[in-house]
Specification:
Elements (H helix, E strand, L loop, with lengths): L2 H5 L6 H28 L5 H28 L9 H6 L12 H26 L4 H40 L1
Helix pairs in contact: 2-3, 2-5, 3-6, 5-6
The protein binds fe (ii) ion (2 copies).
Protein name: Ferritin
InterPro entries: Dps-like, DPSL_diiron-bd_dom, Ferritin-like, Ferritin-like_diiron, Ferritin-like_SF, Ferritin_DPS_dom
GO molecular function: ferric iron binding; ferroxidase activity; heme binding
Length: 172
């Protein structure tokens, strides 16, 4: 544990911070696996563009898990040791893909990102002016999650627009 490092944390319980970060850590692993498996099972129109996006997001979520784990250790905590805890500690849960078409997969993924944005903005509110290191870390992750949502939404809109134009042409 970084004693001097932790002494700069003011007005917030370190144990509470560790609990909150471990919940986010569970979310990141579940998000990583959700993207990983979505990229495998996805089917249909423009799926290659979606696969590239999903794989990139999987890589980012794993990187986030790494960042959060390192901060938990710095604070003197232990990152969750058993994958079973991912399900009991998660904020955002795990949405196993039910439909494998591109639009359904993208919609599930967008929902996940919206949850991640809420979680990190809450941790940012909790740590602002109290723990600058965690605040900086969650701000970086939050910026990635905002970008993820935007990328998925843009792809979703392109695909649904393309499909509806296609339908128009067929009907004329
Ligand atoms: Fe993430
Ligand atoms: Fe994300």
């Amino acid at each position: 544990m970084a004693h001097k490092g932790n002494s700069i944390i003011k007005g917030i319980e370190i144990s509470e911070l560790i609990t909150v970060l471990n919940k986010a850590y569970a979310d990141e692993w579940l998000a990583y696996y959700q993207y990983f498996i979505e990229a495998k099972v996805i089917k249909g129109i423009m799926k290659d563009a979606a696969i590239a996006e999903l794989q990139q997001h999987a890589t980012d979520e794993l990187r986030h898990a790494n960042m959060v784990a390192d901060r938990i250790l710095q604070l003197g905590g232990t990152p969750l040791l058993h994958p079973q805890e991912w399900f009991t500690k998660t904020n955002c849960g795990y949405d196993a893909p039910a439909e494998f078409d591109v639009v359904s997969i993208l919609q599930d993924a967008i929902k996940g990102e919206q949850c991640a944005i809420s979680v990190y903005s809450e941790i940012a509110d909790m740590t602002r002016n109290k723990d600058i290191v965690t605040y900086d870390l969650v701000s970086q992750i939050l910026a990635d999650e905002v970008e993820h949502e935007e990328d998925l939404q843009a792809l979703h809109d392109d695909i649904t627009e393309f499909v509806s134009e296609l339908k128009e042409h067929i009907n004329h």
